[in-house]
Amino acid sequence: MSGNGAVYLLTVVVSLGLLCLIIDLIRRRQLKEKYALLWLATALVLFVFAVKRSLVEMLAGALGIYYAPSALFLLGFLFMLALNLQYTVMLSRQSERIIRLAQEVGLLRRRLEELAAGPGDVAETHSDPHDACGVTNEV
Questions:
Q1: Contact 106, 100 (CB under 8 A)
Q2: Hey, which residues does 36 pair with through a beta bridge?
Q3: Of 2, 10, 68, 100, which one's alpha carbon is 20 to 30 angstroms from that of 114?
């Protein structure tokens, strides 16, 4: 088997393995459907490129890449880069939401303590600015 054949065979094995892994993760409910579609499509595209070598060679020629299997790795790299950017954006949004929720919990906790203390017996409290949960300490 030539060097190119080994790379294509490896690509077929990896794409089938990825496909099986994705299906197993979906089955065990460890991967949500909205992400699963992206990964299933990726595995299928990788499999089609591995089986249909002419597509990879055509893509490599269009991109000016001499060694056709390198086009697969370039596509994989670009995909992972885009996916990493997407997850970074999602992580930033989630971080902001967590901070906002922690502040709301702190305000609600303080309000509960004020209500529990009664109208004439409001305890003097202060919040630690470093305490994300808003736990108050009586002075």
A1: no
A2: none
A3: 100
Rg (alpha carbons) of the chain, rounded to whole number:
27
63: which DSSP letter? H
pLDDT, tens digit (0-9, with 9 covering 90-100), for 19-73 = 899 899 989 999 888 788 888 888 888 888 878 888 888 989 999 999 887 887 8
Rounded CA separation 115/137 (Å):
16
**What's the pTM value of the predicted model, to 2 decimals?**
0.58
In angstroms, how far is the first alpha carbon of the chain from the final one? 79
The CB-side HSE value for 124 (13 A sphere, CA atoms) comes to: 1
Q: Is residue 47 within 8 Å of residue 16, measured between CB atoms?
A: yes
